[in-house]
């Protein structure tokens, strides 16, 4: 009855319902001759071509129909239907057919092994297409594992042995060719199925590949070693036979790969790694592994080979030392490797030790305390040890992964936060009036950048953070000379510790989480005070304001009323600032607090709105504010709008408040811009702010004219800023020239972002090509502009050529080719190269149209 209902069904909703019902009915049926009848009924719908119309809310999709149909085909043996689609010429159809085939083959093997094999072998010839290659290799691995699981000798003979016979020629005769490499990848996927499959593959091709590995032809030898290593690597998965199928070839492989390693061939190292790293048991003697490990370690120490060889050697060494089966070798070699890792220029040794830690918790428990001890001792002794140790520590944390991160705090059963707090204490162990004080501060400052990265990755609110906050609480709140010195070197670590605060408290109980939040909120005003104190260096003031931002964003107990009080206090001091440096420092702090409040939203969003109004008033009040004040206000709005985090709409909310006033200010300033006029000063800060908004708002908002005044849009404002900046160069005070460069860079970055969007977003430039193109050409040639700025202007031209309206560009083609020809004489090579690229694009565009 259901089958009858399927016949001729064209309504996708009814078809989906019928297929779902049929799948439920087929679930419990035993084989009994009904399969062919069902297959004939459903195969007429394969492949699914239905696409729902835009805005369709019926819930029927191509994917849902395809999923139900494939399930039906799987239950009735519909593999051959999919095989036909896999033979299509088009890549998309072939890929879809292969994905369907993988589903339809299912959990049990159908009776036609040779058909599946021949289809995959044919697709193997399309391996230059990555999508096809990925699908084929996935199916091969699935099938090979099913063969091994079911111990299906028919499939093993047809699929595995048949594939080896077919591909043996490509592998043995020319392994470096495209066909040879794809054949090796095919066979390596077969070996992933298990030991018996691997044994058949190795018996077919291993000896030929080993013979080529010792060939005098280095290219062929490397290709053969790479292929054999790939096949060896495939045997790591689920070996269920003993002895290991690699064992008969291991001695010859060691000799061959050693020869390649001796001549610094990367392929030899990678192949040897595949040979050694085949758990659950080694296929070579322990002394052979140790001898090889020491030889590549020696090459790493000497550092005279090519960088790619040394990198491969370090990865190989790390993988070997991270395996339990080689623990005696690890025990003997690890002290030397640790010592080497802590000596200055030791990048490859660090890679090896990080790789070993990533593979083994046991190795991590040995390595981490040693490196940690070196960091703390180095910071205390004011020597190079702190810097070298911190470099090793950050590499270990970044590359060692979960094993390393989870071992902070003493590892299993250790006390939370002890290690990281030890680093902070070592950094803060400044002795007043001591000869060591200056050296210790210098050494600490050299180590801090690496330690910041460590703290960002490792510190978690439910683990190390409470102890760190408790320690810094005393230093921050007790304002004396010694604590100020401590903060100068350590406060950035406190800020880094707050990185994961927004993610919540993890498994902390509610009381501990509230206590932590309350402690952090208590630090807001002291941090605010530090960030405004110019006796601290810029790094410390920045760290204080960033820490404050993270507390506002992440703390659940910060109240809007409290933030309003903090903001009000800063705003009051802005009205009576002493000098421009103090003003700029306070404005940056105000912008960061406002941005954090905006990201948080809710009641705190009102605090952000007030901050935007204050900053907007500073940059747009042409009557009451000095020119420098307006510039500072514009930069403050930039600091606010560029902040990361929060939801998708807080920037639009800020723009709706600020941009109308900004554009009116620009419009008023552009009414008189003669060289002897000072009217341009009215819009100086506003143009800077407009550039920051154009860089930060969603492209759609800018391109759709969502931000404009009565007679100006944002693009016009930026273009006017460029023209005005060029007109004013060389005039005014020296600091003014730097501020105009900010205007130029801001506008160029905005144009690069907008022109790269393409499509309908380019409509924002309609009507302005005749002004924009000459302006960009001018800045691409201008020698007084930075090299990055020249390249930026050329990038904008390149984007316009790719995405702009040719009819508009055509009018300026003669000028474009002439000016770009002049840029070819630019003194900097990178500018000349970019100019050649852009000019060629415009020439091709002209010929094509």
UniProtKB/TrEMBL annotation:
Domain MMS19 N-terminal as annotated: residue spans: 2-73
Signal sequence residues: none
Cellular compartment(s): Nucleus
GO cellular component, one term: cytosolic [4Fe-4S] assembly targeting complex
InterPro entries: ARM-type_fold, MMS19, MMS19_N
Record-linked Pfam families: MMS19_N (PF14500)
UniProt-listed GO biological process terms: DNA repair; iron-sulfur cluster assembly; protein maturation
Keywords in alphabetical order: DNA damage, DNA repair, Nucleus
Annotated family: Belongs to the MET18/MMS19 family.
Function comment: Key component of the cytosolic iron-sulfur protein assembly (CIA) complex, a multiprotein complex that mediates the incorporation of iron-sulfur cluster into apoproteins specifically involved in DNA metabolism and genomic integrity. In the CIA complex, MMS19 acts as an adapter between early-acting CIA components and a subset of cellular target iron-sulfur proteins.
UniProt-recorded name of the protein: MMS19 nucleotide excision repair protein
Organism of origin: Triparma strigata
